[in-house]
Amino acid sequence: MGKIGIYGSSFDPVTNVHLWTASTVAHRCRLDKVIFLPCSGKRKDKAMKTSDLHRWNMLQLALEGNDKFLADDYEINQEAWNVYTYYTLEHFKKKYPNDEIYFIMGADLLVDIADGKWKYDQELVAGNKFIIMAREGIDMLRTISRSPLLRNHDDGSTFHLIDKGLAMEISSTYIRDEFSKGGEPRYLLPDACYEYIKKHSLYQ
Fold first, then answer.
1. E strand spans, the chain
2. Is 111 helix (H, G, I), strand (E, B) or coil?
């Protein structure tokens, strides 16, 4: 039985911090695989700056040469109305029935669940395991304890909190801004992705 982490993000573009984060989480949580899951450009709550195809191509380039990292286009191919994390995790549990599935997310999303902002939150929390990465200014233990939903499903293995040395905030937004203003973000993302962005004049 293996352990698989599902790492969802817009990856617009994928950065070296995404890769370093996934690598650190895999090492500390003894994951056998990390599945990078780019979200759909059709989502109403996120405005993508690039097409699904460009984001997918860059992700493929970024993950080359690492057998622990896989990209999956499940969410990109869903209709927007059907994209909920609960459904996504049900899909992966069916796809990998002999493995343990963990959803990797930032502490900011844990706060959103605590605040009742996620659909199917009861089913999601009751039936899944989470790896939560620290975010500046968020007390993860307090977030869990103040939420009846989270604290009543915290059996010691539901939430794996990673609070040391993961708060490197080089964001995709920063990189897009640098490209658009004529900056030089070259070493913040994989070389192949940097070349791809230049070649296709993305984020101009």
1. 3-9, 33-38, 69-71, 100-106, 129-133, 159-162
2. helix
Using only the alpha carbons of the chain, give its radius of gyration.
17
Q: How far apart are CA 143 and CA 101, in angstroms?
A: 23
Q: Which tokens go with 79?
A: 């209709």
Token representation of residue 56: 């997918």
Contact assessment for residue 71 and residue 36, using Cβ atoms and an 8 Å cutoff: yes
Q: What is the mean pLDDT of residues 77-82?
A: 79
pLDDT at 44 over 80: no
CA–CA distance, 147 with 21 (Å, rounded to integer):
27
By C-alpha distance, which of 204, 2, 4 is closest to 104?
4
Long-range contacts of 165-168 (CB under 8 A, 24+ apart): 165/24, 166/21, 166/24, 166/25, 166/133, 166/134, 167/134, 167/135, 167/136, 168/17, 168/20, 168/21
State how far the alpha carbon of 60 is from the alpha carbons of 56, 64, 66, in Å: 6, 6, 11
Percent of the chain with pLDDT over 70: 95
